[in-house]
Amino acid sequence: MTTAEATRSNLPTILPPSGGILGALSDLFWRRPTVLLVVMLLPPVLWLGVVYLGSLLALLIQSFFSIDEFSGLINREFTLKTYGELLRPANLDIIVRTVVMAALVTLSSAVIAFPIAYFAARYARGKWKALFYLGVMMPLWSSYLVKVYAWKLILAKEGILTWLLSKLHLTALLDAWLSLPVIGGNSLSVSFTGTFIVFVYVWMPFMILPIQAALERVPGNLIEASSDLGATPRQTFRNVLFPLALPGIVAGSIFTFSLTLGDYIIPQIIGTSRLFIGQAVYAHQGTAGNIPLAAAFSVVPIVVMCLYLWGAKRMGAFDAL
Amino acid sequence: MKSYLKTCTALALALGMTGNAFAQVKEIGAGEGEVNIIAWAGYIERGETDKTFDWVTKFEEASGCKVNVKTAATSDEMVALMNEGGFDLVTASGDASLRLIAGKRVQPINVDLIKSWSSVDDRLKNAPWHTVDGVHYGVPYMWGPNVLMYNTEAIKTAPTSWKVVFEEMTLDDGKSNKGRVQAYDGPIHVADAALYLMTHKPDLGIKDPYQLNEDQYKAALDLLRQQRTLVGRYWHDAFIQIDDFKNEGVVASGSWPFQVNILKSDNQPVASVFPEEGVTGWADTTMMHVDSEHPNCSYMWMEHTLSSNLQSDLGVWFGANPSVPAACTDGSGMQTKEGCTANGFDDFDKVHFWTTPTSKCETQGDQCVPYYRWVSDYIGVIGGR
């Protein structure tokens, strides 16, 4: 103790350069803070720039190549031919099908999620709030595949839902629904209705949480003021609550929309076997070796999402970030 | 002059290296300590999934070669991995093997060095998917047919034709087959349609279901479009198909013996047949990389695949057929004669083995529709176009 204090009192005011590489580095960083900044930022920027954007760029370039009709080899000359192929009826079907499904899933998720989020934000307190979080998050803890397979069993022709409906003498209702064109099918698990239900279920937490966060931020006195001024609950919802919660809804919709747009596992397990964009990409690059067309297909969700985000920005979804 | 000499040396070296790489192995030396194999999932088991299925541990003990397995999910993945290099062996299916040979990624095999070669099924020894111009590029591993599986309660008399999955009809239980049949969710299923047309529309002149000219191809697609109206969902994953037969009311579909065996062991009312039109099937070959770093261990493994319990036990495990006929009966593993028959061993001649369709084809004067069009058109068919 005494020796240490003695040494400290003898220290010179101006330090000699500290020895070793680490010491020199430390001095350099102290004298030139920008160097430190560059060193700290370089890895993440490289990651973003090279690994992330670089691979996206590689993908984009691939989509401008084309496949040779005869040999099946990739022709590395820039052309728009592959994009032209996207406009073929079969491929256009896939794009329209996926975008319509994503839009429907997003809308329904919003409609179902809003009351749940509203209850959680306004009324749930204490242990109920904890239970709410648990309830919403719990599906996210188990494997996505397990959930999808479970739904396959629930929706199957000889599954739980059919059994329940037959006990309730509502089989005719189900049959009537399944006999509808496009959305119907042999059973719920081989129809678009089934795909839709599972999509809504799987992505629901991603919609509830942002809406709830947005609703928490709406001051309670605004609602009270609205009714004090004579607005009916409907008017309060339309003119006060909904506009203030909109950024949350839009943020949630970005999740559900983009997740549905890119998913290729749910439609493979539940549905009519008609392809979605993700499956088309998988089929073209995996088995056919038609990488240009696969790349062109994967550019579609990027374009759709860019348009969507542009619209979302205009609605103020990112103002609260 | 100096640079000229350098070039000469480099050329000589390069030639020497390539020459070396392409020559067959003359004799098997001591093992190099390991062997790297690309295989289908479930193909190389060391008792980790199920204790009773192990055909690696004994090989490792006897040869001193550690077996490293890289599983691949598709033939394209196998080709890509082989192009990348760093592997010794691959269990290539018929749609990958010829590509590997054409791309010079695999080396000829000296069958004289494989003691048990003579035990290989005579029908497979010179199979065109691994023997090119009389040169062997691999050792047959396993093969299996795509059979017609059906529900014995809905279809009382065994169907003799694939008609049940292609054309609408009333089944024995008095209901239509509409919505109760399945088809494989892969473009290669076009070949099954072509096989059906080969018998039922002989005037189309289809000689080989993997070699279709424009007219034949169009007819096959039309048949598949008709099939689309009957199929609720196409099958892709063996376990999903098993579930569909149990819970979805599916009563007939092309399938693998694997699913048939599992459903039967679960006491489900199913059976399978080889319809009169014949069936499609797959045959895998162990092939050796041209730059294999462990040739001795590789040869030892190839010998092991033929002479150990592998052929017999893998047949049971995978629902496949051994390339060594004796494995059905010699008790080297768990397979029995009945098991082999159930897996379609006796119907080899009816199997049209998988090959990749290319525009170059013998039977139609090099005017065939290549595989990538099968892919895009089959997507259209499933989509209802």
Strand-and-helix sequence of chain A, N→C? HHHEEHHHHHHHHHHHH
- Strand fraction of chain A: under 5%
Number of helices of chain B: 14
**Strand content of the residues of chain B, in percent?**
15-25%
CATH class of chain A: Mainly Alpha
- Name the structural class of chain A: mainly alpha
Q: State the distance separating the first and last CA atoms of chain B.
A: 68 Å
Stated plainly, the CATH topology of the largest domain in chain B is called: D-Maltodextrin-Binding Protein, domain 2
Question: Class of the largest domain in chain B in CATH?
Answer: Alpha Beta
The global form of chain A is: extended
Tell me briefly what this model is:
The complex is a heterodimer of chains A (321) and B (385). Chain A has 321 residues and is mainly α.
List keywords for this structure.
heterodimer, A: 321 residues, mainly alpha, MetI-like fold, two-stranded antiparallel ribbon, 15 helices, 1% strand, extended, B: 385 residues, alpha/beta, D-Maltodextrin-Binding Protein, domain 2, 2 domains, seven-stranded mixed β-sheet, four-stranded mixed β-sheet, 14 helices, 13 strands
